[in-house]
Amino acid sequence: MLFEQKIKKIIIPQQQRNDVSNSHVTSSKIWDPVNKEVSKEFFSKKNKKLNEKFQFYLNNPHIPIRNLLLFSSPNILLLGLFFFCPEIFKSIKLDASVTIFVIFLILPLWYWRAVNTLQKDLVKYLIAKEKNWIYNPEKSSSHWSRFRTFSPVFFNKGDRGQLMQDEFWGKFKGQKKIVDFYSSVFEYQIKHRSNKGKTYYTNHFKTIFSVRLDKKLNADFRLEPENIGTKFLNFFSKKEINTESSEFNKLFAVFYNGRKDQKALEIVKTLSPALQIKLVELSQKEKFSLLFRNDIAIFMINGKLLPRMKTNFFRAIKLHPADKTFIENRINTILDISSEMMKYLD
After folding, report:
1. What is the pTM of this model?
2. pLDDT at 161
3. Partners of 136 in the beta sheet?
4. Contact at 8 Å (CB) between 189 and 167?
5. Can you say whether residue 143 is alpha, beta or left, with left for phi > 0 and alpha for psi between -120 and 50 degrees?
6. pLDDT tens digit string along 104-135?
């Protein structure tokens, strides 16, 4: 009950008061790694819809389960008839019965997915609201196109359906400095062909964390998890760079453009011993790649920002605190490293 009251206080206050309190954010330019124009007012309109939906469900907590049962009623009826009056189905072919069942199953699945998406958006919106960040719940293929232009080798993944979603823009207060950051989930699809020659696609997700560094680096490069493929490439290109940390060298391969004798010193200088320790520690929790370009560092981590969710509106209209804590901890882990990174790059 106390948690629900806290949510009401955060999500459903007077909109005018929020606009005034956040006016200092709108007055300054919001940093984006690929120079997309970002307006807090524009996304406030989109987030207002989240408020309205949550308000509706909060005032009508019975509606999610009621609607799910309503949409499922045709299949419930069919199953009841199948078990208690099986003679009705004797004149109907099995394929036809299955087809009817599947058709009636589409609507409840669609509704369940819509409510589940709303739950995820609300958790992220709450975090953005508390920390005075901007949150975009919608998907953007155009923003991905900017990232692909910025670094084709890093973002030109998949065969179709490339887009950015669950986007955050904001500032993170580190131990010594305030860091501009951007976060999103990068989604794309990979094409496959079955043994029977049929084409199908699988969805893949990468969580992106991008931070603005204090200075422009003299050498652009990226770190990729070390594997047989990366060892093969580095062996034949003769561009392998090793640091003084054997553990770091086992975990990561370094890729860059240009000659080794021109780039190695600057790259090793950027990868200070303290930063190597932080990245090795992170690799024990997450599988990731890291791009350094100009004055920007971009982490690309496997999977979604929130892989599993404990919030369930079909049980209760409240946000499970574990979901909020999970996202905050994951974001803070990367941003803490990024804040420390500034110190190492001085």
Report:
1. 0.79
2. 96
3. 167
4. no
5. alpha
6. 678 888 888 889 888 888 888 888 888 899 99
Angle between helices 94-131 and 2-11 (to 10 degrees): 70
- Residue 132 and residue 207: Cα distance in Å, rounded? 21
20, 22, 24, 25 alpha-carbon torsion, rounded to 10°: -150
Dist CA 61 CA 186 (whole Å):
33
Rounded Cα distance, 325 and 88, in Å = 52
254 phi and psi angles, rounded to 5 deg? -105, 130
| Three-class secondary structure of residue 35 per DSSP | coil
Phi-psi region of 116 (alpha: psi -120 to 50; beta: other; left: phi over 0): alpha
What is the rounded CA–CA span in Å between residue 154 and residue 186?
11
Find, among 259, 260, 257, the residue nearest to 241 by Cα: 260
At 10 the pLDDT is: 41
| pLDDT tens by residue, 34-53 | 999 998 888 887 788 888 88
Asked whether 253 and 231 are in contact (CB, 8 A), the reply is yes
**Alpha helices (H) in 85-203, listed in sequence order:** 94-131, 141-150, 152-155
- Cβ 201 vs Cβ 191: under 8 Å: yes
Q: How many CB atoms neighbour CB 62 within 10 A?
A: 9
Helix axes 321-345, 273-283, angle to 10 degrees: 160
